[in-house]
């Protein structure tokens, strides 16, 4: 099928997606442009911000790709106090970001769960609930997800990392703490509770094929998620997956593949929120802009106090680690204007796909 025919299709079969993910050069540019046009038509040129607060790098898991995995003993572990988190949230509000995202290594203990509940409630008290709250705190019980939802969190990110079970177990230990079925069940639980649920995958992993990536996109569609985050895999020297660093696509190819994944998904799910992940900017100084131009519409500027950022290196050479929040603020505004986009300040920036789905259910 010609590219033009493909791009005009209403629904993509797996083979269509594989063909689109394999495009290069001029054809790839046509795909990215089509995705951008669809985004402008459905969501305008707005970019939404979530001030990212990296609460703690203490983690019970040991994913084979992740720099802060529990088996990496080189990492200094830290945890922000409630007041520190509150200060970050207040700063995000002051800068007009509209939403915060709290991310942390995974913990299930009672003290952690209760701390999050209190934090969500306290953040909600800032200016009468002015800030939207996204949580990204890993796998939890249905009850805990429910408790945090009732406290006021309304979005939750839990990347599936790979929707292909075989690949999942190549990038995670195969044990009770890293269970594919459990991860799927968590995503279902979040959807059922009513969170705007986000998921996603890393792109350019060892053993990952275009077929598997196409299945990932179909998985997002089947689950009808509200948000997706996808970024290039970046090998971390202190992790087991680093041994394959010379067997994965080049940084440029991982970047391009990420852009194609974003673009194809924008065609498949035109009104979801899609983040231009920081990992994009790590492999390419213009990576976030490129992701926005390929169909992404959310950016998560880092609000973590600078002294802790060096300890939250999920992957090496993370972008913006030494920038102050105020610097990111003006930097982003200028960068987005330069590519014909505008940041929508002082708004939650909810997923349009989700808002429409809910209003259909209610009416
Ligand atoms: N490269 C790129 N992304 C990574 N993540 C974890 N480790 C890496 C890495 N080495 C991503 C995972 C996780 C998110 C918080 O960061 O997808 O869900
Ligand atoms: Fe699992 Fe960090 S140990 S993502």
Question: Could you characterize what this model shows?
Answer:
With 363 residues, this protein is of the alpha/beta class. It has a single domain (47-358), classed as Aldolase class I (TIM Barrel), CATH 3.20.20.70. It is built from 15 helices and ten strands. The protein has helices at 3-7, 14-21, 25-43, 82-94, 110-125, 142-151, 165-171, 180-193, 210-223, 251-268, 278-283, 287-293, 306-309, 325-338, 352-362; strands at 46-49, 51-56, 99-104, 132-136, 155-157, 196-203, 227-232, 273-276, 298-299, 342-343. Strands 2-3-4-5-6-7-8 form a seven-stranded parallel beta sheet. A three-stranded parallel beta sheet has the order 9-1-10, with helices on one face. Helix 5 packs parallel to helix 6, helix 6 packs parallel to helix 8 and helix 9 (210-223) runs parallel beside helix 10 (251-268). The radius of gyration is 19 Å and the shape is globular. The protein binds 5'-deoxyadenosine and FE2/S2 (inorganic) cluster. 5'-deoxyadenosine is lined by residues 65-66, 159, 161, 202, 231, 233-234, 236, 279, 314-315.
Q: Helices, strands, pairings?
A:
Blueprint: H1 3-7, H2 14-21, H3 25-43, E1 46-49, E2 51-56, H4 82-94, E3 99-104, H5 110-125, E4 132-136, H6 142-151, E5 155-157, H7 165-171, H8 180-193, E6 196-203, H9 210-223, E7 227-232, H10 251-268, E8 273-276, H11 278-283, H12 287-293, E9 298-299, H13 306-309, H14 325-338, E10 342-343, H15 352-362
Parallel strand pairs: 1-9, 1-10, 2-3, 3-4, 4-5, 5-6, 6-7, 7-8
Helix pairs in contact: 2-9, 3-10, 4-5, 5-6, 6-8, 9-10
Bound molecules: 5'-deoxyadenosine and FE2/S2 (inorganic) cluster.
